[in-house]
Amino acid sequence: MKKLTVLTAALLLCMLAKPQSTIDTRKYIEVTGSAEMQVQPDEIELEVVIQEYDRAGKKVRLDDVNDGFVKVLQKNKVNTDSLKFIDLQNHDWYWLYWWEHRGDYYQTKTITIKLQKSTNIINLVEELNEKWVQSIRISKSENSKITEYRKQVKTEAAKAAKAKATYLLESLGEELGGVLSIEEVPEANNDYNYWYRPVNLVSNSNVSMPGGYAENGIKNVTAIKLRYEVKIKFAIQ
Fold this sequence. Notes:
By secondary structure, the chain is an alpha+beta fold. Helix content is 30%, strand content 32%. The strands form three sheets. It has a four-stranded mixed beta sheet. Strands 5-6-2-7 form a four-stranded antiparallel beta sheet. Strands 3-4 form a two-stranded antiparallel ribbon.
């Protein structure tokens, strides 16, 4: 009985000594603001697959095809120093590619090219419409000021969240207080579950910004879409 009393007293002492967690009773509102911008790329990477072909009953070798390819690029003001040959042997799936194409009569070569705004991509693609071109695709598009544009979009998203919180509280006769927390929502393109999130978590406060100086970008190319969401918790005064 004496041991039990001592144990109970020790347990009570520990409970009193343990700091009690405080409950935040402040009133708050949590909203999500979003913003987007269309940015024209000022540099793109073109992936071209060239191949051997028959001309007058004779096979044109890959080296000769490559010479003709380089001439087309030079004619269209493409810096041939930027050409890169893609070595398929560095890819995990090379063995599958080799197995499927091991008996091909015509050899192919995959090349990537960096294009600047000085190149008319439409004219280039039209001149590459040859028998020795197997495929053409844009493998990458970039803008040299993309970091600056991302900051602008995130800033506008935060402003949209504040505007939404303000008019919602004003409709209830309340006043907006200071910021309690800010959380950047993962980018839609990188979030597999983006389209499956509950509707009440997605803000309808969208701000469309002007295109990112399209005159400095490459024309006739799909723009880069930047979209960000910011979740902000505001105190209610």
